[in-house]
Design brief:
This is Mini-ribonuclease 3. It holds the Pfam family Ribonuclease_3. It is built from 6 helices and no strands. The protein is an all-alpha fold. It has a single domain, classed as Ribonuclease iii, N-terminal Endonuclease Domain, Chain A (Orthogonal Bundle), CATH 1.10.1520. The longest helix is centred in the first third of the chain and has 23 residues.
């Protein structure tokens, strides 16, 4: 992928921007596969519980030791980035950790490392599900 060379050049907030979308689609796809007969509203409620900042923050505590050095560096850049937005429904610590997680997801997506991306998103999803259930 052309972007692979540039993955490190994107700002952490741009990586988080794309990572947010990638993880959201992953979660929605998993939920639809697991619960094909649920109404859209219930799927939305389940998805929201898994993608909100608090859930991502809890997942990152589990995932952080599994990160490679490169992924950890991207996560920290995202976590420490100064965002113009203020969290509406999350405390600042959860919001920053979630931004770091999304930056790592975005980085792996742009880099084209789909296998590693799938591994981390699967673990984050399953960890979030354990926290919710």
């Amino acid at each position: 992928m052309e972007f692979e060379k540039k993955a490190r050049q994107y700002s952490p907030l741009v990586l988080a921007y794309i990572g947010d979308s990638v993880y959201e689609v992953y979660v929605r796809s998993r939920l639809l596969a697991e619960f094909p007969d649920l109404p859209a509203h219930k799927l939305h409620v389940l998805a929201t519980a898994r993608v909100k900042a608090h859930a991502q923050s809890n997942s990152i505590r589990f995932l952080e030791p599994l990160f490679t050095e490169e992924e950890l560096a991207v996560y920290k850049r995202g976590r420490n980035a100064k965002s113009a937005t203020v969290p509406k429904n999350a405390d600042l610590t959860d919001y920053r950790r979630a931004t770091g997680f999304e930056a790592a997801v975005g980085y792996l997506y742009i880099k084209g490392d789909r296998e590693r991306l799938e591994t981390l998103m699967k673990q984050a999803y399953e960890h979030a599900a354990d926290e919710i259930d």
